[in-house]
Amino acid sequence: MKHVILLFLFVLSAVYAIGCKSDTTGPLNSGVTFAMSTAPGTTGTFFTFKPGVDVKLTRVVVSLPAQPFFDTLTDGGTYVYSKDTTYNLSEYTGVATGQQWKFYFTGSTTSNSSFADAQADLTIP
C-alpha cells in the first residue's frame, strides 16, 4: 500500500512531542505562515503543520523537488485549522535526513476571508 492520504489527522499530541525540526517560511501572496515539522508514523514519517493564523484550506501540495515528487492533498475549505494547534498532513515513506521538502498551501483566512497562498520549506534533520 502506498501512503495513506489522511489530509488532517488529529492524533498528534504524543507523536509531535518526539524530537522534530521545525521550519517556518513566509507567505507568497498573503500574511499567512506555516510552521512545518515531522513526527514518526506507523510506517513512515508524518509531516505536520501549524498555521500562523486561523485558516480554511482547500489544497496542500507536498513536494520533494530533488526526486521529483509531488502529492496534492485537497480539503473542502470549510474546516477551520486553528493557529493554536499542530496538525498532521499525511504519512510518507522514504523521508530521509537532508531532504528539502516544500509545501504549498492554498485557502483563506477566517478573520476576513482573504485568499491565503503560502509556501513553507522543511529540511529533514
Short description:
The chain has 125 residues and is mostly beta strands. The protein is built from one helix and eight strands; from the N terminus they run H-E-E-E-E-E-E-E-E.
What does this 3D model show about the protein?
With 125 residues, this protein is mostly beta strands. The protein has one domain: Immunoglobulin-like. 3% of the residues lie in helices and 46% in strands. The strands form two sheets. Strands 1-2-3-6 form a four-stranded antiparallel β-sheet, with no helix packed on it. A four-stranded antiparallel β-sheet has the order 5-4-7-8, with no helix packed on it. A hairpin with a 4-residue loop joins strand 4 and strand 5 (69-74). The longest helix has 4 residues, at 13-16. The protein is globular and about 40 Å long. The two termini are 26 Å apart. The model is unreliable at 1-22 and 24-28 (pLDDT under 50).
What share of the residues lie within helices? under 10%
What is the correct CATH architecture?
Sandwich
**Average pLDDT figure:** 80
Label the structural class: mainly beta
Low-pLDDT segments: 1-22, 24-28
Number of domains: 1
As a whole number of angstroms, the C-alpha radius of gyration is: 13 Å
What can be said about the biggest beta sheet?
4 strands, antiparallel
In DSSP terms (H or I, runs of 4 or more residues), the helix count works out at 1
**Could you say which overall geometry the principal axes of the C-alpha atoms support?**
globular
Count of beta strands: 8
CATH class descriptor: Mainly Beta
